[in-house]
Amino acid sequence: MSLKKGFLWGGATAANQFEGAWNEDGKGASVPDMCTNGTKDSPKRITTIIEPENLYPSHEAIDFYHHYEEDIRLFSEMGFNVFRFSIAWTRIFPTGMEETPNEKGLRFYDRVVDCCRKYGIEPLITLSHYEMPYALVEKYNGWYGRECIELFERYCRTVFERFKGRVKYWLTFNEINSGTMPMGNVLSLGTVKGFSGPITGIKDEPAVRFQALHHQLVASAKVVKYAHENYPEYKLGNMICFLTQYPATCNPDDMLACQKEMRMKNWFCSDVQVRGYYPSYAERFFRENGISVKMEDDDTEILRDGTVDFYTFSYYMSLCASAGEADEKTGGNLIGGVRNPYLEESEWGWQIDPKGLRFTLNEIYDRYHIPVMVVENGLGARDTVEADGSINDDYRIEYLRKHIEQMKEAAEDGVDLMGYTPWGCIDLVSASTGEMAKRYGFIYVDKHDDGTGTLKRLKKKSFFWYKKVIESNGEELAPM
Ligand code: BG6
Question: Are residues 455 and 67 in contact, defined by beta-carbon separation less than 8 angstroms?
Fold first, then answer.
């Protein structure tokens, strides 16, 4: 089975993880700009002020801000026809609260978008990728403040107008469902007012978190509706961190535990964003967890009118769920879970499960029947640069090859699959740990965890392999 003609092949990034230039040309600080580096075993920290003795990896990152031409040229050499990146809200509205946008910030994205177009690459823009303006954290405790909805709308209206005729695909919030989990406080919701310390030490208040998430869901629906009304050529998508769960055994208690996990962690946000209303199962969850979400009169109508055109998600790994406490645990993206004895895991403890991607694609499409796109997937691994400058990342090729094979199976199963943008197509800063050592790219960047490095770009073996994959529209997957 072949993937459809015009399949979107590319890669994905996020402003705070690769642009650098964190305070250049008027940019304001966002939450990740206040986060230090860390490792798998020693969590990164968030600070309320920039502490000179700390290293803040987003400040320089891989300096895409000054290397965008070179990087987009390399993407084009691989054959990309789509490039997923995010706009940093704080480049356009440095505190999130200004009345007028920062022209220099807009000009940077003019250059990026025009450069993509020059190479025939379709931009796929995430409006908010874990980049809450820090000033909004200080003023409103992030998305807990309903005021953020209007401020976000102003930002989106500005960029929608600026890029009309040059961009077609937009995603509202990256991994919006991270707000259903404690890690969402720092990553997406910005509900960390006044907190300084390791990100694992943030006090989680589910009632605050779900209120903040409600505001994001309303904001997402509002901007989708606005775009549909004013820019009929725009296609708007949601974006979910899909944490596929299997029951640890066929014990009915494990089945129910798994269903519960799948619903509140994976389906809840997209049920709202695709169907346009809160799912019935959420009520009991809220009741049992002491959560009461305050809604305004017209919220129901807004959610109903702002449903998305396509569904996108990230997929890295899967977990098991069980009703028991004793099972062996594993790590993972945003959350850990019960270990699956049939799977291997990456050095960072994420269980590798290509068939889970096929399963997940089918589940999503069965549920919603709208086009689906895999906008993140990949293996975070250490790379070694050989004496001759080559990087033989066969492990990455293996991971991606197996996932693409399963994606093709899903297309054969009948899923309307739009495209594939593996994560961190160029090495960038890890969102969970702040490390550079956890690399995903086809392009290596000489930048290290201690902040040193020449920023030189090198093509990995996977660069040449992915070029072949794209050229053949996914037919030639054999390792090189
Ligand atoms: C996703 C995020 O959860 O996973 C990205 O959208 C992130 O921002 C990616 O970088 C990989 O996670 P990590 O922690 O390895 O960078």
Answer: yes
Q: Ligand 1 within 6 A of 333 CB?
A: yes
3-state secondary structure 434-449: CCCCCECCCEEECCCC
- Specify the residue with its C-alpha closest to ligand 1, atom 8: 431
Nearest CA to ligand 1 atom 16: 430
Residues facing 313 on adjacent strands: 240, 374
Does 175 contact ligand 1 (Cβ within 6 A)? yes
* CATH class entry, domain 8-471: alpha beta
Residue nearest to atom 12 of ligand 1 (CA): 431
pLDDT digits (tens, 9 = 90+) for 397-449: 999 999 999 999 999 999 999 999 999 999 999 999 999 999 999 999 999 99
In the annotation, is 398 catalytic?
Answer: no
The ranges assigned to domains in the chain are 8-471
CA of 433 from ligand 1 middle (Å) equals 9
pLDDT tens for 328-370 read: 778 887 888 899 999 999 999 999 999 999 999 999 999 999 9
> Catalytic one among 175, 261, 409, 435?
175
The reported pTM is: 0.98
